[in-house]
Amino acid sequence: LSADGSSREYATFLGGSGYDISRDIFVDGDGQAFVTGHTRSLDFPATSSACTGSDAFVTQLNTLGNGIGYSACLGGSAGEEGFSIAVDQDGNAYVAGQTYSTDFPVTAGAYQTVRGNSWDGFVAKLNAAGSDLEYATYLGGSEDDWPEDVAVDSSGCVYATGNTESSD
Fold first, then answer.
1. What does pTM read for this prediction?
2. Burial (0-12, 13-18, 19+ Cβ within 10 Å), 112
3. Neighbouring-strand partners of residue 71
């Protein structure tokens, strides 16, 4: 929508031939939209990594909404969902979501490298080109956990909030 809400700037579809759902959107100062959610489409329009059929996705749309800057699928073998996205001043995207995979692509030196229970949260950072996973970590305990929002401050500190059923 326009800044005053009086007209539509653009509208577009995002997805493949399967079940796809967008959960959150972040618009940067240049007007680029960053979207995260869940896809079950093997043909989701990913530019930097293939979708396996039940993944979180991160997509950057250009300012006109008629092209993709990048689109990446993120996940392991069992299922993921992106719930929230934030973008820092350098264009790096931060995604918080939930994973059921024991092989979620956590990075070396991650805060939590092993899934705590069936559903754990995750927090991941993609570089500004969407081509590299800067870091990814599980975030959860012995019961089900899921972050529902993520934010990043001007110093690059990341904050996640959500729900936990874990006492640990």
1. 0.94
2. middle
3. 59
